[in-house]
Design goal:
By secondary structure, the protein is of the alpha+beta class. It has a single domain, classed as Transcriptional regulator MraZ domain (Chemotaxis protein chec). 40% of the residues lie in helices and 29% in strands. It has six helices and eight strands. It has a six-stranded antiparallel sheet, sandwiched between helices. Strands 2-6 form a two-stranded antiparallel ribbon. A hairpin with a 2-residue loop joins β7 and β8. The protein is globular.
Amino acid sequence: MLIGQYQHTIDIKKRLALPIKFRGELGAKVIVTKGIENCLVVYTEKEWEIVSARLANLSISEVAARKFTRHHLASAMEIALDKLGRVLIPDYLKDYAHFKKNVVICGLSNRLEIWDEKMWADNTKDAEKGVEEIVSKLGPLGI
C-alpha cells in the first residue's frame, strides 16, 4: 500500500528519486500525469489500466467527462525508473505542477501525488482548517 509523505528534490537533470519504500510496489515503469490542483499523479501500470478503462467508458457526450479525460489521459507519460529509482519529469508536467526544486511525494493507497513543497503546505493548511466540515460531508458515503 502506498501511504505516507516524503520530501525530495528534483535534481538539475529534472530527475526525481521516488521513495525507496514505494519502489517495490511501483515496478520498473510508472505512469505520471496531471492531477487536480496542480499536482502530478503517479500510477503503477496495473492501476493505470483500471483508471484509464474507467475514463474510456465515460460518455463523450458529457462535457465534464471529455474535459477531464483529456486532462488526465492526454498528459500521461509512461516513465521507466532508473537503477536508483529516479524518474525524469517532462517539462510540461514540471511546469503544470509549478515544480522548482523541493517537492512532497504522498502515498494515497493506490497512487502517489507529487506536489511542489509550498503548494503542498498551503493545500494541507487549507484542508486542516475545514476537516470537520469535510468529514461531515463524507459521512453519507460511509467514511
